[in-house]
Design goal:
Rossmann fold, seven-stranded parallel beta sheet
Amino acid sequence: MNIGIFTNAYKPLISGVVNSIDLIKSGMEARGHRVYVFAPKYKGYRDCESDVNRFYSVNLTVRVDFPLAIPYHYKIFKMIPELDLDIIHTHHPFLLGEVGGAFARKLGIPLVYTFHTQFEQYSHYIPFNQDIVKKVTRHSVINYAQKCDLIICPSTTILTLLDNYGITAPIEMIPNAINLDTFRHTDPRPVYEKYGISPSDKVLVYVGRIGLEKNLGFMLKSFKRAQAEVPEAKLMIVGDGPELEFMREFAGNLGIEKSVVFPGRVEYSEIPAFYGAGYAFIMTSTTEVKPLAILEAMAAGLPVVAISAAGSSDTVNQGEDGILTDHNMDHFTEALLRILKDPGERDKLSAGARRTAEIYSIDTTSERLESLFERLIREKKNA
């Protein structure tokens, strides 16, 4: 198969969506298919992989480093019909997602859309009436989804959301996947040395975007409470985003700046070492779909403490590989203390996390995608 992937986010950006697309590309290529990626141009970055095509882009604000594609490129538009694409797989309903949808209709080939993001939860980045922004966003997503031959849904709670939207297009649930080998054997020594961490420290790790929607203020306050009872606890918030400097200042205002590490932007190849340095993985976001970071942490043997919400509740098995709580600071802090104070409980959950991660192998996902894509292509040709 020749597969066209259209996405508004790709390397060198670091995110769960980008990692998921990268794994899909490599997984399908390993099965003998050719994958063409269409993504925004990122200033100063040169691709070191084949078949990546870049649209000119603009950054609407210096505060958020997320180039938006200009959804027109004469040379690329001329090239696409010559690629003999069999199927188009989009990962956003806007901008390049719309370009991918238009070419699928023009070429008469199947259009698949993976629902990665609850876009309404990100409306605060648009400085306009939030009710109107949410309504327009929801309408746009529904309108796009209804034009697709298949929607891939990464989690069961999102199935409910799509049902509430009234979407009637075919839906298949395929969870995000990871390369297990990348996270099974990690060396934490570079992280220990760089950030002055002792192997006896109990490091709680978060990996992800530093944005308002991630609820990191809640995380810092809960950590402060837990550390008052477990002084050897540390918190490492790994990632970049518009709230990074504010969160650093907030940690200082809470008086915990010496116990909280903000490495900032970290290359994805270095992320496994941060998991390796961890004692547990924590997440306070309530806006996820199927967070890859939880899967990666589990593959590295980290038990998870998270707020029970879409994404986390679909992934974490209560009392088997982690602990879920409601959005209550007392309850979340109690869960942190349960992990920090009881090594036996931590080790039991760690073993469970490794078992859970086995379900999400990229090999399994690639095989499933291949089968779905081939079926859709046959059905389109026979229609």
